[in-house]
Amino acid sequence: MNKKIPMRQCVGCGEMKNKKEMLRVIKTAEDEILLDTTGKKNGRGAYICSDGDCLKKAIKTKGLERSLKTAIPQEVIENLTKEMETIAAR
Q1: What is the per-residue pLDDT across 61-87, written as a single tens digit (0 to 9) for each?
Q2: What is the C-alpha separation between 28 and 31, in angstroms, rounded?
Q3: Number of helices (H) and strands (E), helices first, in the chain?
């Protein structure tokens, strides 16, 4: 029996990929927007490829805002970009 691989769609490029390869951005109950590295935190999640270009696209096309159903302040965008660069550097 084949084990089903959970797939998620990137809010930047729109490609379907394996959930484990992607980064999850969540909006918590307190309306905080953070990068969920564990993939287990509570909150409304949106998935992005671990690629800075996809994050830029998701911000430009408002894909991230649509998925999280909220406006995203500039400082949060900067934090997400920094965190993403840190993860990409690993």
Answers
A1: 999 999 999 999 899 889 888 988 887
A2: 5
A3: 3, 5
